[in-house]
Amino acid sequence: MKISNNLRVRVYFQRKIWMEISSILFLTCTIGTAAERNDTNAAGGQTHLPVHIGLVLDLNSTIGTMAEVCISMALQDFYLAHSDYQTRLFLHPKDAQEDLDLASAVLQMLKNEDIHGIVGPTKLTEETFITEVGKRAQVPVISFTARSSNSHPQNPYSIWTRPHDSNQVKALAAICKRFEWHEVVILYEDTNYGSQFSSELNNEFLKMDIQLAHAIAISTSSEDYYINTVLKRLMAIQTRVFIVHMNAVLGVRLFLLAKRAGMMSDGYAWLVTDSLGNFLNSMDSTVFDSMEGVLGIRPHVPKSERLESFRERWKRTMLLKKPESSKMELNVYGLWAYDTIWALATAVERIGLVNSDLLNLNKGENDNDPFHLRKSQLGPKLVDELYNITFDGLIGEFQLIDGKLKPSALEIFNVIGTGDRIIGYWMPKGGITQKEFKSILWPGDTVKKPLGWSIPSTGKLKVGVPKKKGFTEFVNVTTDPLTNQSIVTGFAIDIFLCALNQLPFKLDYEFIPFMYENGSPKGTYDDLLHNMTLLQAYDIVVGDTTILADRATHVDFTLPYSESGVVWVVKNKQDKDMWTFILPFRWDLWMTILSTCIFIGIVLQILEHRTDCHLDSVRPQRQQLGLLFWFPIAVLAFPERNMVANNWSRFVLVVWLFMCYILMQSYTANLSAMFTVDQLDFTFSQDHNIGFQEGSFVRDFLVTRLHFSESKIKQYSTIEQYHDAMTKGSKNGGIDAIIDEIPYMKLLLNRYGGMYKMLGERYRTDGFSFAFPKDSPLVVHFSRAILAVKAAPNMSRIEEMNFGPGYSSENQLDSSINKQTRLTAYNFGGLFIIIVLATIFALFCSETSFGQQLILIATAFVCKCFFFLPFGGHGSGTTSTVHTNDNDKRSPTDHRSELSEQNNFASPSGQMNIDSSTGVPEDNESDHGNDRDESQHPDPGNVDVTAK
To answer: Cβ contacts of residue 606 below 8 Å, gap of 6+?
Structure first.
């Protein structure tokens, strides 16, 4: 019902007159109380020092009316409890409903009155101006209703006796995260404060991976028609979670209209901030009925006997002083105002009467100020004291941190029936603490948690599917000749249908093939995704769509449902020639083996030349020269022959046999691999052609990344076309290799068995997936459903049903190496180094005097250690002599042979004496040449080894 202009004017003047009368009465009451107390104390011989504080309130608002009574009660209670205090607050109240009125009132108080502090400004524009003025006048501006979301520049004279709104932002983000709502709409009051709150909320949502779908500002002067238009627009989108941040009057209007529009029904979720939540206890049943199921947050007020007593006294005071506001209930704004006065009065008293000159204002130091403000000398002291005050107030612990009230817990409530019920708390350090989250009543009188989104309009999910000529095992679109309806089947479709069954909700869908009316494909996969995002033709694309980085910039993909990667496929057979047997070793290894044979043959000749000197005289020179080459090989061929007599020669041959064993095993293994595993050096000439699948992104991959000429790449649509082109080869107009994604190539290999081989480098992709428009809430749900489908036992059945028996995504195809692994000399470098070092060591010990002496010392040491070991009937301290049998009836030749074998580590003469006292070998006679008479050699049997 519209009110006439005359009635509007009459009501306006009545309110104006009533506010002026209330202001005068309040001022008179306050001044009279202070004067009465001063007179009383003066009569008792005690003087109280008044400290003047400005009080700016909008007495036409609910908060202003409530704060007026609470402040009056705070003054009475404080000085009743602290009657011995020497200071008294003297308040100068001003009624300011508009910004201009408030600014004017503050300036007048600072210029004309002895004001040392200001209490009360609420709005952002007011706060910004007044705090700057207070800073210039060195007067603290104390607000218990400050609504600025963002902190203004650091100003020590701006003090908030309420917590910062950043706590609300964090609590709202935590609630949305808790209920898994990934997309939210905020409706806020069209003010600077509302805009800043929305911006800060969006920043916090980004940290939680939550999308702020829309931010809609609504003015307090908006007509119902405009609000209905906004609500209808919101009903047409998928998002079903709404956050309301506006004053109580506008918020109530919004919910009444939302109720009529059907937006307070099943599937919707509504959250309110403390701007509306703090005033729910003052609303009637009609408002509660329209808000049933709403969640909200507001500051938590701990229960106490003091608080309950204050509530009762406040109700009685309101009936006496404000009978027209009898339905108003006390909330946190009144409690913050009460505690603010207590903190201010405490701070003033702490400063005390040490220096009464602090109450004087400096009138000449600030002449350059355009407002000609006087600076307060008490203001800086008052600010310092306020920052250091801590006490238990009605709201809980009162303590200022960075100029704002210490953050406190927020309670999460649920609107039910004609009231609300607390279901949990949000703690500044602990986050959400659950209380009764499982028993929430949501809009529509349901206890089922809203999903946070819904399919709009028709209510069916429009599923776009690609039309393909080949590889229809993934997606196959056919037309029913009777009904002319499209029939869609395939592996991707089966995965989609199984995923639907895994969702925690039901979705209706319809398949929309991406093809012309004649049944031919409309374009590539990129064209299909373009139709979904820009033309909004589909809600989801289901098919063998590859996840690519450039596509992910404008669409969202689910988790992949197939394996990933791009691979090469070539023919599995390769011709072998008659020289294949030399391929296992490269030429440098063959040459190294030959050189080593010659080297060892020479060394063996040197080691055996003394032992076989009687044979060398009868061997032809030609045979002796050939022995250098074939001797090491002959040892391998005829191991049973005693071809060497020197033990050092045997040592060299043992090392040589060790090397030959390793080389033979490596040769055998590599040759077997060449005959059983086909390999191809993937370095193509200009005559080779490469095949890829039509419409695939692989074409750009070949040209831009692998730098293949476009004239050498050919596109094919089906497996049969691939096979025909590979059979022809490049020389006959076909191709020599295919590059495509692993799922397609596994189908090719599964069909044609051993005719083809996947090999070479595997280029990484992220596999096949379902695509959604950017920021779609369905992405998370389908990703979880795909994980459940892949882990289900029927996954193998789905694969075999579409791809045939033997196919499994669990079996990864092993790729061969790119080049033939011919072994080189470097691969056996360590082995050859060991052979050469061992051979040189044997040559050194056998043919040099120093080496011989070194071996004699080592032999003597070993023998000495050996004979110190206890035997049969010999003790460790006995002397034993070992004699050879002088009567041994063997020929001198046999003696020489045995001596040569037993003492091959001795000098060439075969004679060795060991000093029994020192254990050091002595040469009994020097070597006079190789032509000495055998009779000059001592009897090999006269060797005494004495151990003491």
So the answer is: 843, 847
* pLDDT at 496 (0 to 100): 95
CB 145, CB 163: distance < 8 Å: no
| Burial class for 60, CB neighbours closer than 10 Å (0-12, 13-18, 19+) | middle
**What per-residue confidence (pLDDT) applies to 269?**
96
Q: Return the residue matching tokens 């009836």.
A: 889
- Structure tokens of 91? 């308040």
Strand arrangement, sheet containing 460-466 = 508-514, 460-466, 540-546, 768-773, 555-557
Phi, psi of 521 (to 5 degrees): -65, 145
H or E stretch at 10: helix 5-43
Percent of the chain with pLDDT strictly greater than 90: 31
Token code pair at residue 836: 């050469």
**Separation between Cα atoms, residue 927 and residue 34, nearest integer Å:** 135
Collapsing DSSP to helix, strand or coil, 296 comes out as: strand
Alpha helices in 810-875 (DSSP H): 829-847, 849-867
Measured in whole angstroms, how far is the alpha carbon of residue 915 from the centre of its chain? 80
Burial class (CB within 10 angstroms; exposed 0-12, middle 13-18, buried 19+) of 578: exposed
Q: C-alpha angle with apex 185: 180 to 190, nearest 5 degrees?
A: 145
pLDDT at position 666 is 85
Nearby residues of 78 by Cβ (< 8 Å), 6 or more positions away: 341, 342, 345
- pLDDT, one tens digit per residue, over 703-731 is 888 888 888 899 999 999 999 999 888 88
pLDDT tens by residue, 190-200 = 988 889 899 99
